[in-house]
Structures
1.
Amino acid sequence: MTINVDILDPASVQAAITQLESYDLEARVDEICRRLADIGFATASAGFAGAIYDGTNDVRVTVEPIDNGYAIKANGQAVLFIEYGAGATFGYGHPRPEGYGPGTYNPRSRRWSSPYGWYYGTSRDLHHTYGNPPAAAMYHAEQDALRDVERIAEEVLNR
């Protein structure tokens, strides 16, 4: 938004004041945050849904309003396994592990480190796995939103 004003002309100054008062900055900032959250939601949802994971993928991604913006949340038993990976074969490689990685979900269990994999499930329904690669769905959601901040802010603030 560009406001031209002649500071020596009271009518021009009043017109500039009127334009500024009609410019709802709070609503525009909220729109920027919401659009960025929508981008993150789409990326995270696709990342979790398309993840390679032997277990039950129960991850549910939501966007929730918080003070001064929105939070993208991933809930479910499989979130950490899918986001950060699991197992000695595939569990490494998340770009920002933040202290998570293979063996950190249950530090008492050392099955994750077996090069032969491990089994999970019930005695009637056993499944063998070597783990899964990190999907990094939330990491990629953050990267996509950061990539578009300037473009979205410019679109919203300049109309």
Note: The chain has a mean pLDDT of 86.
2.
Amino acid sequence: MFVGIYASETWKITTKVRPTQKLNIFHQLSLRKILHAPYRKHITNEVSHAENWLKTMAERRFRLAGHVLRLPSHRPSNVAVSWTPDDDRRRRGRPKKTWRRTFLEDLTRANISWKEAEHTAMDRPLWCQAAAQCAYYWHDRN
């Protein structure tokens, strides 16, 4: 797998931080270095076969969430993902976007509720299909 998306399943997707743009730049620079192409030579993304990074990250995020949701309910990672604060107000300095909110957006894009996701995650083959479906919706979006 491409080294630029290492641990991308833990990234949050915001409009301010555009990971796909940064990954495309990194991918282009890496290809130029491998192919010994001069910087002045224009190489388009179509020639370099740049992937749809959002699709890959969404599928990896779904796989990570499946592992966490399959853990026993007393494990800290499962508690952290399932926990919702009492008041929905965030304090000053807290990020608006979190990994959980990014994952919830993936679920709504795939028309899956949180309870349905918790239930579906227990069945690994079914969860893999849901992950592929979520990646399909990301691909459809772009």
Note: Helices lie at 19-35, 45-48, 53-70, 76-82, 99-109, 114-121, 124-141.
